[in-house]
Amino acid sequence: MSKRYTLLKKEGKARRGRFVTPHGTIETPVFMNVGTLAAIKGAVSSMDLKEIGCQVELSNTYHLHLRPSDEVIYKMGGLHSFMNWDKPILTDSGGFQVFSLAKMRKIKEEGVYFNSHIDGSKIFMGPEESMQIQSHLASTIAMAFDECVSNPSTREYVERSVDRTTRWLERCKIEIDRLNLLPSTINKEQMLFGINQGGVYDDIRIEHAKTITKMDLDGYAIGGLAVGESHEDMYRVIDAVVPYLPEDKPIYLMGVGTPENILEAVDRGIDFFDCVLPARNGRHGSVFTKNGKINLLNAKFQLDSKPIDEGCQCPACKSYTRAYIRHLFKAKELLALRLCVLHNLYFYNKLMADIRDALDGGYFKEFKEEKLKQWNLNA
Amino acid sequence: MSKRYTLLKKEGKARRGRFVTPHGTIETPVFMNVGTLAAIKGAVSSMDLKEIGCQVELSNTYHLHLRPSDEVIYKMGGLHSFMNWDKPILTDSGGFQVFSLAKMRKIKEEGVYFNSHIDGSKIFMGPEESMQIQSHLASTIAMAFDECVSNPSTREYVERSVDRTTRWLERCKIEIDRLNLLPSTINKEQMLFGINQGGVYDDIRIEHAKTITKMDLDGYAIGGLAVGESHEDMYRVIDAVVPYLPEDKPIYLMGVGTPENILEAVDRGIDFFDCVLPARNGRHGSVFTKNGKINLLNAKFQLDSKPIDEGCQCPACKSYTRAYIRHLFKAKELLALRLCVLHNLYFYNKLMADIRDALDGGYFKEFKEEKLKQWNLNA
């Protein structure tokens, strides 16, 4: 395999990199914009995504398998064609959703038996099934099928679970290599990222990181964080694990987080992020500004003629006032959701661009301290 | 007053015209895109409206008076500034909504006492109040405050109602003239359209048309149609009334209708249209095509890789397939609504542009017959 990831610059542990994919180059650190069901919630289209600076879209294997089914998406030419997005797409493996959404799940060595959260129907998903679905979806990057244990869990449970996740990863690798060779496969260069697990037990995390690093995957994720543990635990685990992941591969911190979390994690060597937070917050009128979060439903914005965030170049801020968007929420007009989701995703994408600039310019530490101070002022 | 309306060409009774306003020129016949609460339902923004060829946006006095209040919009600089739309806006008078939405209404000579459909609070609206609210909203065109009687109503009731509507129109004219002279008024060139009423009684309609024509207003609407009567009654009334309205002013058929209705009405001399139908249909997956209406929720579109309407240049058709939009509906993704509303409004705006071209080229009759035939083929 040709070298995909290039580490361009380091400042402390923070990494400025570049990741080359068949669907275009990703400048890192990057925030992936979440479109669970092949669409960003809040009536945001793939055209909008380009306008707000999205580099990578993320969709969910579990959700798309249930609806409309990966078979449909395969027949429609894969996710890129289906949702009209030609840049990189990462699909998660379904592992997290099986453990957070599905009902009546039974974990066996072969995989997980569970009931659909939509209609209760029985479904089996194991490493091979997850890879087959993701191959159908034809995403740029497939994630390994893992068990995401909730925090806290007992040491004994986590150890057994991590061992199984390792065996599942080996099966994922074999299966994706097989699928990428099939003539019927849409994306024959689909990449695989492994996922480090181990709860909040640093030593289990480190042992697991060492094990999966040997497998020479396209990238490595840290999973099972932001699932109940404290921020201190999260940062400590990242500090512990990152040194044991390969420096020449991107590192993805799954499902994290707030702008503050992202700055702290970049500072600890993370390259990829995703989180539903900005879109979810936006749908409730909670928007990010350079001076912290505000909620547009607040009565004080009724006559506020300022944009959500002064100086922001997102489609919402270039055209509309806080007063107008507040009215849209009160009037239950869907445009309210769309404008706030656009703004929040733009805020995240712009934050990442600013982080990259800071790393390029060698002033990331100062940038981080200044941002944390600004955001907390009005928090 | 300078001459605002120019009749450019006639084909039979069908009129190709041009209407000059302080917010830009309107090419007629025109379909106004309805944004009841200062936003088009389905997360469509004023930026989107420009992309889909909207010439005139229409908002509702009654709704905006209740939420966010005309006072708020006045303080925000008027509707144009509030919703970031610099082209013409027509506001209806609230008359229709008072009679279709409000509860416990009492009609008196001075106006109507009613309860808000939102919180039940008591409100009074008469001709002066309607004009004051519309002056606050600062729309390009204000509509007269009238009583919209439902069909059928007794001859006696309609006669009394129409007489009152005439007296209300006189009061509207006096009030808007006064308001347009106030230094605090945002749009001092706000225009007033009178509304012809009379149910399905041709003679009452004609007498009323003669009376209001004498008042030299900026335009004339035919109201009280598409409220329960048959299409035959509607077309007959239009045929009866249009000859008694001034040829040098635009004629607006309120709340109508289907693409077929529009062709028939243009053929009878109508210049302005508005209707919630395309946006409402779109939100339910019902979309217009050159071969008639289809519903994207239908299972047969599950793997359909065609756009909603082949050859259509709307933002939805340029980027997305029927299969994708169907999936969005099934997955309850709001983007589904937005794409279908954009398509349907584009379809209407494009239909009007094609009608204008046909009138310019002198082939409107053929155009009309061909369209009616095409649409009915698959209806």
Describe the structure.
The structure is a homodimer of 379-residue chains. Chain A has helices at 46-51, 61-66, 70-75, 79-83, 95-100, 127-137, 155-181, 202-213, 231-241, 259-266, 277-283, 315-319, 322-330, 335-361, 364-377, and strands spanning 5-11, 14-21, 24-28, 30-34, 57-60, 89-92, 103-107, 112-115, 122-125, 141-143, 191-196, 219-222, 251-253, 272-274, 286-289, 292-295. The first copy, chain A, is of the alpha/beta class and 379 residues long. Chain A has two domains: 5-275, Alpha-Beta Barrel (TIM Barrel); 284-377, no CATH class. In chain A, the strands form four sheets. Chain A has an eight-stranded parallel barrel, surrounded by four helices. In chain A, strands 1-2-3 form a three-stranded antiparallel beta sheet. In chain A, strands 7-8-9 form a three-stranded antiparallel beta sheet. In chain A, strand 4, helix 1 and strand 5 (57-60) form a beta-alpha-beta unit. In chain A, helix 6 (127-137) packs across helix 7 (155-181), helix 11 (277-283) packs antiparallel against helix 14 and helix 13 packs across helix 14. The first copy, chain A, is globular and about 60 Å long. In chain A, 54% of the residues are buried. The mean pLDDT of chain A is 96. The A-B interface holds A 37-47, 63, 67-68, 72, 75-77, 82-84, 302-303, 305, 315, 319-321, 323-324, 326-328, 330-331, 333-335, 337-339 and B 37-47, 63, 67-68, 72, 75-77, 82-84, 302-303, 305, 315, 319-321, 323-324, 326-328, 330-331, 333-335, 337-339.
Beta-strand percent range of chain A: 15-25%
Radius of gyration of chain A: 20 Å
Outline of chain A: globular
Strand order of the largest sheet of chain A: 4-5-6-10-11-12-13-14
Per CATH, the architecture of the largest domain in chain A is Alpha-Beta Barrel
CATH topology of the largest domain in chain A: TIM Barrel
Distance between the termini of chain A: 47 Å
SS field, number of helical segments of chain A:
15
Class derived from helix and strand content of chain A = alpha/beta
Count of all domains of chain A? 2
pLDDT under 50 segments of chain A (min length 5)?
none
Helix content of chain A: 40-55%
Strand segment count of chain A: 16
- Which pair of chains forms the biggest interface, and how many residues does each contribute? A-B, 41 and 41 residues
User: What is the CATH C-level name of the largest domain in chain A?
Assistant: Alpha Beta
CATH H-level superfamily of the largest domain in chain A:
Queuine tRNA-ribosyltransferase-like
Oligomer designation: homodimer
Major sheet description of chain A: 8 strands, parallel, barrel
Mean pLDDT of chain A: 96
Active site (chains A, B): 92, 274
Region (RNA binding) (chains A, B): 255-261, 279-283
Cofactor (chains A, B): Zn(2+)
Keywords (chains A, B): Glycosyltransferase, Metal-binding, Queuosine biosynthesis, Transferase, tRNA processing, Zinc
